[in-house]
């Protein structure tokens, strides 16, 4: 029987953990990579967070700047894959975790090559609840497990259009991305974010915290949707100044209005 599900072989980092890991990495920027990795490993052992995902976070957040050269990236990716292979040989701790929900095969196939190594083929005895429609869209790297209903998603989209962040013609793609497709539309095309990258980063950050109730920010799906890169850097830049990007108040008003009845 073909396996239609994959279980993850990792534990997600909390937002605070990811920030500290990247802070430690930068604080030790003058050291050799061996010592920098050890500093990260010591932190992960102390805080009981996932060393493999910590290294992956460093690669994703720093591979486009001068803090990581090609040799460093190669070194980190080799260690990431080494840990992943070890987990493939002993996946039971992750399979037996009742909070570790599997992803469907189609979502797995949309992962990057290295991300696929973080998952193991496994169909649980009790399958997770399935959507009521087969026309559920697939996010670039994961399914957005939010609790927003379709009217709320439409309200968010209209508000983003009103603030000049999005164009009205992109509604169909936005609804599909948010798991509320219009009619039989099961895919989404990239949407142009009309405002600054900093405001886009603020929108994604606040969506993760206020809608998903997650400390870990899901950058990649929104970067793909809005054709943006390095949103985490844009967030870091405005945090350094202590000044929120122009339009942040309007984004906060969107959440206040959309979520006020569900809180």
How many individual domains?
2
Radius of gyration over C-alpha positions, nearest whole angstrom: 19 Å
Separate helix tally: 13
Instruction: Give the proportion of residues in helices.
Output: 40-55%
SS-based class = mainly alpha
Q: What value does the average pLDDT take?
A: 81
Order of helices and strands: EHHHHHEHHEHHHHHH
Q: Which segments are poorly predicted (pLDDT under 50) over 5 or more consecutive residues?
A: 130-143, 183-187
Describe the largest sheet: 3 strands, antiparallel
What is the terminal-to-terminal distance? Answer: 43 Å
Widest sheet: strand ordering: 2-1-3
Give the overall silhouette: globular
Counted beta strands: 3
Strand content: under 5%
Overview of the molecule:
The protein is mainly alpha-helical. The protein has two domains: 5-121, no CATH class; 150-259. 52% of the residues lie in helices and 3% in strands. A three-stranded antiparallel β-sheet has the order 2-1-3. Mean pLDDT is 81; it is low at 130-143 and 183-187.
Quick rundown:
The protein has two domains: about 5-120, no CATH class; about 150-260.
SSE layout and pairings?
Layout (H helix, E strand, L loop, with lengths): L4 E4 L6 H13 L5 H15 L3 H12 L7 H20 L2 H4 L7 E2 H4 L4 H4 L2 E3 L28 H13 L8 H7 L19 H15 L7 H7 L5 H11 L6 H12 L4
Antiparallel strand pairs: 1-2, 1-3
Helix pairs in contact: 1-2, 1-3, 3-4, 8-13, 10-12, 10-13
Notable characteristics:
single chain, 263 residues, mainly alpha, globular
